[in-house]
Amino acid sequence: MANQWVYLFGEHEFDKELLGGKGANLGEMTRVGFPVPEGFTITTEACRYYINEGSEPGDLDAQVKEKLVEVERKTGKKFGDSANPLLLSVRSGAKISMPGMMDTVLNLGLNDETIRGLIKKSGNERFAFDSYRRLIQMFGDVVLGVEHAKFEEILESHKDGRKDTELSVEELKQIVKDYKELVEEETGKPFPNSPMEQLSLAVRAVFNSWDTERAKVYRKLHGIPDDLGTAVNVQAMVFGNMGEKSGTGVAFTRNPATGAKEHYGEYLLNAQGEDVVAGIRTPHPVDDLKKDLPGPYAELIKVYDALEKHYKDVQDFEFTIEEGKFYLLQTRTGKRTAQAAVKIAVDMADEGLIDKETAVMRVDPNSINQLLHEQLDPSAELNVIAQGLAASPGAAVGKIAFTAEDAQAMAEKGEPVVLVRNETSPEDISGMAVAKGILTARGGMTSHAAVVARGMGKCCISGCSDIKVNEKARKMTVGDEEFGAESWISLDGGTGRVIKGQVKTVPPSFSSDFVKLMKWADSFRKMGVRTNADTPKDAKRARDFGAEGIGLTRTEHMFFGEDRLPWMQKMILAKNAEGRKEALSHLLEMQREDFKGIFKAMDGLPVTIRLLDPPLHEFLPNHEELLVEITALKIKGDNSALLKEKEGLMKRVAELKESNPMLGHRGCRLSITMPDVARMQVRAILEAAIECAAKGIDVKPEIEVPLVGHANELKLVKGFIDETAKKVFAEKGETISYKVGTMIELPRACLTANEIAEYAEFMSFGTNDLTQTTFGFSRDDAGKFITEYRDKKILDGDPFAVIDRNGVGQLMELTVKRGRATKPGLEVGICGEQGGEPDSVEFCYLIGLSYVSCSPFRVPIARLAAAQSSIKHKGLRK
Amino acid sequence: MANQWVYLFGEHEFDKELLGGKGANLGEMTRVGFPVPEGFTITTEACRYYINEGSEPGDLDAQVKEKLVEVERKTGKKFGDSANPLLLSVRSGAKISMPGMMDTVLNLGLNDETIRGLIKKSGNERFAFDSYRRLIQMFGDVVLGVEHAKFEEILESHKDGRKDTELSVEELKQIVKDYKELVEEETGKPFPNSPMEQLSLAVRAVFNSWDTERAKVYRKLHGIPDDLGTAVNVQAMVFGNMGEKSGTGVAFTRNPATGAKEHYGEYLLNAQGEDVVAGIRTPHPVDDLKKDLPGPYAELIKVYDALEKHYKDVQDFEFTIEEGKFYLLQTRTGKRTAQAAVKIAVDMADEGLIDKETAVMRVDPNSINQLLHEQLDPSAELNVIAQGLAASPGAAVGKIAFTAEDAQAMAEKGEPVVLVRNETSPEDISGMAVAKGILTARGGMTSHAAVVARGMGKCCISGCSDIKVNEKARKMTVGDEEFGAESWISLDGGTGRVIKGQVKTVPPSFSSDFVKLMKWADSFRKMGVRTNADTPKDAKRARDFGAEGIGLTRTEHMFFGEDRLPWMQKMILAKNAEGRKEALSHLLEMQREDFKGIFKAMDGLPVTIRLLDPPLHEFLPNHEELLVEITALKIKGDNSALLKEKEGLMKRVAELKESNPMLGHRGCRLSITMPDVARMQVRAILEAAIECAAKGIDVKPEIEVPLVGHANELKLVKGFIDETAKKVFAEKGETISYKVGTMIELPRACLTANEIAEYAEFMSFGTNDLTQTTFGFSRDDAGKFITEYRDKKILDGDPFAVIDRNGVGQLMELTVKRGRATKPGLEVGICGEQGGEPDSVEFCYLIGLSYVSCSPFRVPIARLAAAQSSIKHKGLRK
């Protein structure tokens, strides 16, 4: 059976996979009865066919022509007709929106013949020639690959400083002529006159645009699969550029930056759609339309409500007014900042538009990061030099870069960057990605800069006409003041204020909406969320963020402190048991204080403390540095005590040196061969616990043995932990209940979890190490090839960031099953870095983990992700 | 129900676990009707009870007394009776024989009272007092812990140069007195007079002997579990020391050194058993007994046949002749050299005593190593200086050590050692373990030295009366010539010749018996055996040893050759594609030659060639050495081109340096990021194959991609292998069939074997790496703690030597299952070092591997182990 490649708007049911987001929505709106210009959609299937086969399906042309006849019938116009010509737009529309990334061509169907019909029907020769020159310019650029700047050059030479609306008919005619010559010069062929040829070439250009470099970069940045393909929407033109009763605009049903329910949007009179988005003229806020065109304004206001009622979510839509008649050109789910997402979700639930579960599902856990960004210190004195549009909230403090390349170079040196441009274009994406914030002189709230910045969760101020930017000279002028590259500047995205210099920032505070949403989330959540924290300060912060305990305290971090490291070194270098004992007694005191602070901060909640993990050489001077020092001393003929001392030290450092420290003498292997350190730590934990308990603090210590690969290791270490506990309890005359458990970070531990569970009261996945050993990737070294692996599609993602479900995940699932076979209900958590990453949290939920543990700032993300998992996978948890 | 701790000989059925080897055999012989003195066995259960609880079972004493009454009834004598006293021996006997390791006490029951009865019944006062002094000496040493040497000192002072048989009754009485004084002096208590007390203490001493240091060392060396415990055999004494019509001897039913069917054994007249084994007097060969005591000799000869007929294996037995009456004191399966094991197995099968399967099972695959030992060059001129007993075959060439300590010290320095002693004792075990061979001046074919050396598969010459050894002075004298410590000496264990100096050695040749046995083995074997070989020479040798193909050729070894390394370095350091290309073209030519040689050696058999595996920095100078050089040059103010060059080199070395190279940029990761090298290798393999095929050689190349962890890696690499092959075939106008497969050496590869199998035509386990990642043990570093792990019983064995069935093994089993689920019948082998280790071979057989591959010298071991697995596990293979 032949494939159907083309559907009239509304002919097929809503199906983003097939029709793309834009096509599906145009169809949906057509069926519901919104005033949408007639048209049809060429499916993503056709695009995929084109990409895989290198040419369009053989029957595509015929199907297009068939649907075109339908459109002609409905509009009463004819494509290529010199009396009453139908003009068409061609727009891309993938399943997932990629704003500004893909290509559009307007006014297709114009040539020296049909323009006569357009003039006659519109009675507006100027408009007709303006449309014609726009066709040649866009088609020339997008379809024929003639440099955009060359058209602009011609245009500018004619404008000679005037606005484009001030060009005369004669001037426009000349521009059309010049444009045609330019095209012929550049491509070696005349501009295609045949409307059908124009259409075919434009469709193919959209197909091709799927694989441009910038589209690939965008998809990589947003994790969009490369094999979706795009649909193509062919639609009857309506004209916002027919004069002062015409116009075009872009609007959101709510404010996408703040979430406020207000008439958000912008329009330009006598303009076509791309003028608003491209940010060439700064448009007017929609409410001004009431005065300019009250009839269409009333229709617009009705559309706001109608769209939300139908779609139950914020819509981002485009409209055109042709000679007073209102058209809806497209709608899609509105991208929003995290702050807006939270407010909109909560408001809509409160309004009864959606239920609470839906509200919780509406916020992307990854975006919560944005709410945790630093903000400008409210108590700082601000030298505000300019005011722009508050296009994307947050704060940015950095040095100015005027080009994407400069921004990247500076970022590579580790400098904070604010990208300052007249306007941004898709070519700037990589510069925007590395910048802390973006400031543009032109463009509105829906300009490229604003939309992309919001997508990235970055602070952005757009349309800041107070500043003049000279990108070539790398200069920004505000009044009399000049700012060069690398001058410090600060942005307040929440208010649109541009501030001179480097303003201090402070941690964020949560909105009441956020608190409400998280409360709802917690009510659905079924998996615990803990934090990884090594200090009372981190522990407290995490608890404020909702952590329900500590899943990992890394005690070794405590040994690197200036007051501790010397004792640690003495312990390692001790020549006899006495020397070691003395050093350990000092460390004991300090560790006891560490643990007291943490127990206090976590009063009533469990605290998992891991025994010493890294190999001992990490605490001693670097082998190579020492080697250089000794070599130097020797060559200088230095025979001093210093050389002797260094050589003595070197002996021990060399002894402890390892070829593969990651797989070396560390973790419980240390506790087994050098039990004194672990005994000291256990003593410090339990003495601290007893002291805290005496002060009325509810302590719940969980002592964790790292890097266990064989049940016998845990059996032995648990043996002397319990022995030490007995001693401490006897000495103090107090008993504290505590648990002994293990980290699961080696494949062998997973495979023998049933045996290990005999001795473990809890288990916690160390997925960093487990990923290293399962893949055989050293984290420190794999960077060199992992990027290439991702480019070559060997790996979908970085397994150190997102749990590799197919490999590491299998081992995790096995562990849970086997561990609980031995001990039903065994507490199993995760404390690797993936514990705060939403996709990994979902996986942990599915395999039945008791909790995830992550860094303090990721705790709210994990809470939300865990709640969403409960909602999404009702009854599926193991 | 009360436990039965004591059984009369023959009361319980044959059960080594319960009764120990000696007890079970004494019982068996009693039941069959061999002339065994009456007695009973205290079970190993009683010993384990004693070890675990720290005291004997409460009812043990009563049970012993009960059985003692039975023995008294049968012998007509009474224990502790002054008229007709029963004397007893107490001997240990564990499930697995530990010759010389455990304790024995004879003549229990003698005291100042009972000796009168002994004198009266025997009519031999001298014998009675000789027995008495022996009791005190042995009991004093073994039970009371009085130093053996102190007794010897007293004895020597009385002997004054005479033989012990020349001592008079009065002298013996004085010795008894002196001994008693010595005991009281040393222990603070008089020698225990009560026979029952003597018995209890002796039994406890045997229990205690299980946990002596030397017993532990022996068990560790022989892989005997520590928790078996020993049984205790209490037996009525019969006396070989009653005069010239009495005697004692030790015999084997066949020659345990060569396997020859001959009257093998030794005896001493007028002696007790320990005199023969301890090697104090050099005994006579058994056939001399025909002349000395023809009656008992006839019985002995009957026993040779009767024992083999009953036990169907070589027996090692002890006999005693008391006043012309022949007694069998014990029998056990005879330990034998590998050479003897092979001959005996083949002979017995040929004689119809056992079937061929049993014959194949009779040879320990690990012992085959001995047959592969070097032998003295038959064409060398030998300066034979002495002739001893050919106690254990093989050749040893080394420097003389006179004590076990010296031997260990020399061995640690890597020197080959020959241990030279008057006689060896259990204290010398560790010195014997490190020696290449053992030479003793005293002792027979069944002396301690001979037995232990055969057990260890080491060359030994015993009873070499031509040499005089002064251990204290560290001197050996042969005629007029003196040899000091560290003089070179050579031993020919097959003939007993001692040769001066360092004789050249040559590879072994196999006996026709061995060839026959291996033929039988191959007829039972169901799993293939290949070899790991990197050179034509190794390949050929392995083929001679029976290898059925190459399971692993490591191409990187080829790059380290003097003529290759510079080109490899040029390739790595090349600044551009051209430089790299030139270096690669040189390497291509050399690799092609390598492969041609290997294909030729393996004509008709598969050859698996692994693509480059190690990280590139292994081919460049060492980072630290370079650092020292540069530091030195800088300090010297050297600004020469040399410094520049070194710094340039350092830049690349530093770039390639890795924190954990084992988990770094190696294996297929190299082929993916730097495909040129792999392409060159594939080209070299296929061009070589085509050239060989043109010469009529049957080539079967299997190209192996190392370190795959994700199916996509193999997909990509296989892609360009096939592409390269197409090109080569097109260029040459010839096509060769080849396979592409992968090593399985990462846990993730095992877990996703079903996916990887889509692109793999074969798989081969790299269990070295797989063990490293599964355990998280770096082989280079784990030595530091693995020994401690084994001492602390965390690990049973070294997982790098024997496959860890419970961890690594699970992954292997999973791999086979999943790989074959995708591709039924998929060829899966192993090429890790465990592939030639019998226990691992058995595991590989059980999980259904297609073949094992090991180093050339291990090929026969693997063949035999694989055959034994087939016999042992009929129908159990997956």
Walk me through this protein's architecture.
Two copies of one chain form a homodimer. The longest helix of chain A has 25 residues, at 577-601. Chain A is elongated and about 105 Å long. The first copy, chain A, is 47% helix and 17% strand. In chain A, the strands form seven sheets. An eight-stranded mixed beta sheet of chain A has the order 14-24-23-16-17-18-19-15. Chain A has an eight-stranded parallel β-barrel with strand order 26-27-28-29-30-31-32-33, surrounded by six helices. Chain A has 35 helices and 33 strands. Chain A is of the alpha/beta class and 878 residues long. Chain A starts with 5 loop residues before the first strand and ends in a 6-residue tail after the last helix. In chain A, α22 (565-573) runs antiparallel to α23 (577-601) and α24 (623-635) packs antiparallel against α25 (641-656). The interface between A and B is large, with 57 and 57 residues.
Which characteristics define this entry?
35 helices, alpha/beta, 878 residues, eight-stranded parallel barrel
Topology:
The structure is a homodimer of 878-residue chains.
Chain A: E1 6-8, H1 16-32, E2 39-42, H2 44-53, H3 60-75, E3 78-79, E4 85-86, E5 88-94, E6 104-108, H4 114-122, H5 125-143, H6 148-159, H7 169-187, H8 195-209, H9 213-222, E7 230-236, E8 247-252, E9 264-269, H10 273-278, E10 284-285, H11 289-292, H12 294-311, E11 315-322, E12 325-333, H13 338-351, H14 356-361, H15 368-371, E13 375-376, E14 384-387, E15 389-392, E16 395-401, H16 404-412, E17 417-421, H17 429-434, E18 437-440, H18 448-456, E19 459-462, E20 467-470, E21 475-478, E22 481-484, E23 488-492, E24 497-500, E25 505-506, H19 512-524, E26 528-532, H20 536-544, E27 550-554, H21 556-559, H22 565-573, H23 577-601, E28 606-610, H24 623-635, H25 641-656, H26 668-673, H27 675-694, E29 700-705, H28 711-732, E30 739-744, H29 747-751, H30 753-756, E31 762-765, H31 767-775, H32 779-791, H33 808-822, E32 827-830, H34 838-846, E33 851-854, H35 859-872
Parallel strand pairs in A: 3-4, 16-17, 17-18, 18-19, 26-27, 26-33, 27-28, 28-29, 29-30, 30-31, 31-32, 32-33
Antiparallel strand pairs in A: 1-2, 2-7, 5-6, 5-7, 8-9, 8-11, 9-10, 11-12, 13-25, 14-24, 15-19, 16-23, 20-21, 21-22, 23-24
